[in-house]
Amino acid sequence: MATSGSKSVAATAYDTLKFNWIQNGQNTVGNYTVINWSLQLISGSAGKISSSVEKDWTVTINGTIYSGTNSVAIENNTTKTLAAGQATIPHNDDGTKTFSYSFSQEFAITFAGASIGTISSSGTGVLNTIPRATTPMFDASSVDMGTTINVYTLRANEAFTHDLAYSFAGGDFIAMGSDVETHMYWEVPLSLANSIPNTTNGTLTIRCITKNGSTVVGTKTALLTVKVPTSVVPMISSVTLAEANTGNITSIGAYVQTKSKLKATITATGAYGSTIKSYSSVFEGKSYNGSSFTTDTIAGSGKVSIKTTVTDSRGRTATEITDVTVLSYEPPTISAFHVARYTSASGSPSSEGTYAWLTVAYNVTSLNSKNTATGKIEYKKTTDTTWSTLYTRNELSLNSTLKPNAVTFSTDYQWDFKITLTDAFKATATYETYIPSGNVILDIKADGKGIAFFKTSTKDGVEIVGELPGSAISLTTNTNLNNLTTPGFYVIPTTTISSTVTNKPYTDTATASIRVESTGTNSVKQILQKSTKTDGSIYERGYESNSWGAWSVVYSGAGKILWTGNSVMNASQSVSFSEALSQQQNGIVLVFSRYATTGEQNYAFSCHFISKLFVTTAGGTTGVNMNLIMATTKFDYIAGKTLTVTDTGITGHSDNTATGKAEISGITYYNDKFALRYVIGV
Questions:
Q1: Using the 8-state DSSP alphabet, how is residue 251 labeled?
Q2: What ranges do the domains of the chain cover?
Q3: Element (H, E) at 614
Q4: How crowded is residue 380: how many other Cβ atoms within 10 Å of its Cβ?
Q5: How far is the CA of 600 from the CAs of 442, 573, 667, in angstroms?
Q6: Stretch (H or E) spanning 496
Q7: Rg, Å, the chain Cα set
Q8: Which tens digits make up the pLDDT trace of 308-367?
Q9: 142-227 maps to CATH 1.10.287
Q10: Model-level pTM?
Q11: Which residues contact 518 (CB under 8 A, 6 or more apart)?
């Protein structure tokens, strides 16, 4: 595009014929340009032409012919205008224009011995585009649906107006506004999202028809990226929960720990055309898929939550947290069941009494008082096989001494007692005990097949009450040591039985002997010693006011190895004790030795005592941080170890493999030259 142009052609060796054009003005409304044109003869130093006869000339511009006559006479070094004029050139509808022109000049002379006739030439000119149809513009290249934008229509002429319309996702054009002058505010419809259910953005086409009155000047379009707002997400309208287990739990009217399962039904919908593609829920650490599912049995209690997430066809998500209240539940427990002989239902204890007092303590989880309890207490002679009911109790919790007066228990026999406790879920706890026959030194069974010391003989063989050389009462499966209150000598005879005995002071399956001593009225002491080749630990505890105290360690089998290995104790290394530090008599000893790249070295051993009292008092649940120093004999290597010691083990630290020179002391340290070899209980 240009506002001027020219074209030259040689007329003689010293003269040039030149056509010039220059833009004079443009008319936006009329869509045309006016140019001034001229035809010139330019002479050089020897270009003089002498001629008095009029000669013909012709100029054609954009198809319009201009012609006339002139004189071609000219002096040296002169520019002469042979012809000039003005031309109006219409533009294309879009405002562009390339026009053609041609020119000719008759000379009809002889110059320097050469005949010069008519000289002509042609060319084209490209005019500046006249602004016509308006291209719409926007503040931004992309916007959210639902927001208002300013559509600019910067017109080429004040007489122009515009009709605006939009099209989206291949749809028809829909009118936005008419006779718009320079701009309009327009809210991008949020409903456009319905047309793109599987993506989050699309391309909007805005069409601008430019008019001059009722005459259409031209049409332009512009593209705008429109996005589904991030606020447009699927909706979870409900997460409906129901009890999946039926039966006895229905009567509780609530969710119950370890009994209930949740049946979840999720209702969700997409947004603005989207559809739900997936459902995902997490409950108690486990994931479930689908719009309905049944959970595993509820493990927790109190407020537990289901986190539900739905994803729609746009990849957008919505999350809902649904809280559930779950009643805490434990199976029935019998914490005490003791029977003793009394002189009467209101009398005093006596080994010759024919009345029995029963100390009973049990508990059934209340479940908002909707649970049920059936506590059945039965009795029989040890030699009988049939039980008789003494009491039936329905309290959810009982801690009482029962004193039956309608039944007596002859001192000639040993009597067995049993309590069976059942709740609404048919969960059952059972415990048995007995009262011996009356005090006798020796009794022979009537059929001569049995003999008993310090009791009446009730079965074949030998029976002994109390502690005689070689005498002991063997405990049976599922014995609760809390119920062992009758003075005497007892044993846990096998590892199989040991694995079922409850409330013992250790967790392994070692056998043990137990001595129960009377320490006063309704108070006893238990002394337990483990019975293995390598562990003779001794524990004791006391019983009074119907409750037991905690076990204390009398002797822990000092010198027991709780761990052995080879560890520099870096940040990723830890050791676990085979028995808790609190179960040791005094504490533990950590044994380190030299360490090389080839492994542990059996020299330069370094021992460090850690007090049980210090760790259990100062450490709490997180343990205590210890810094230990060790070295070889001539201090060739000095090392430090940072350890966290808890009741159950030790964890290392990244500094334990560090080497270097201390900034303050200047000591060179080699923390990687020592490794932990043993942990010994003392």
A1: G
A2: 4-127, 142-227, 235-327, 333-435, 466-554, 560-681
A3: helix 612-618
A4: 17
A5: 65, 16, 24
A6: helix 495-498
A7: 55
A8: 999 999 999 999 999 999 999 999 999 999 999 898 888 888 888 999 999 999 999 999
A9: no
A10: 0.54
A11: 487, 524
